[in-house]
Amino acid sequence: MRRYVHELVVNTPPETLWRAIVDIRRWPEWDAGLETIELRGALAPGCRYTLKPRGGPAVAMSVEAIEPPNRFVDLAHLPLAKMRKIARDAGAQTEAFVRFAGRPS
Predict the structure, then answer these.
(1) Which CATH class is domain 2-102?
(2) Are the C-beta atoms of residues 95 and 7 closer than 8 Å to each other?
(3) Count of CB atoms within 10 A of residue 98's CB?
């Protein structure tokens, strides 16, 4: 199985970033690559939502962990892979990781 990891450090106050991360219905307002988000129920571990990228198919998503204000983990259920996004406060910096795991083609 191949793994790909993308990391970035966001230079914004952790509280500001946390509010943006957990307000998933508003992601399309600041992420130009998204058309819509449809959240079913309250945002909590185990909840499901649908993310629609601009020009792409809808993606089934689930929340794996929410630990305010330090950690948010969600999982994209893709046809041939899983994509896990982890955002966490690491003291002076806020880190975001995206990990892909799937079968090689």
Answers:
(1) alpha beta
(2) yes
(3) 15
Structure-token pair, residue 76: 């994209």
* Token reading at 31: 């992420």
Q: pTM score > 0.70 for this model?
A: yes
Buried b (16+ CB within 10 A) or exposed e, 40-73: eeeeeeebebebeeeeeeeeebebeebeeeeebb
Domain layout of the chain by residue ranges:
2-102
Distance CA 50, CA 68 (A): 22
Q: Are 71 and 87 in contact (CB under 8 A)?
A: yes
Q: pLDDT tens digits, residue range 12-49? A: 777 888 888 899 999 999 999 999 999 988 999 999 99
Nearest residue to 25 (alpha-carbon basis) of 8, 42, 2: 42
Query: Which two tokens mark 93?
Result: 């910096």
Sequence-ordered alpha helix ranges (H) in the chain: 14-22, 27-30
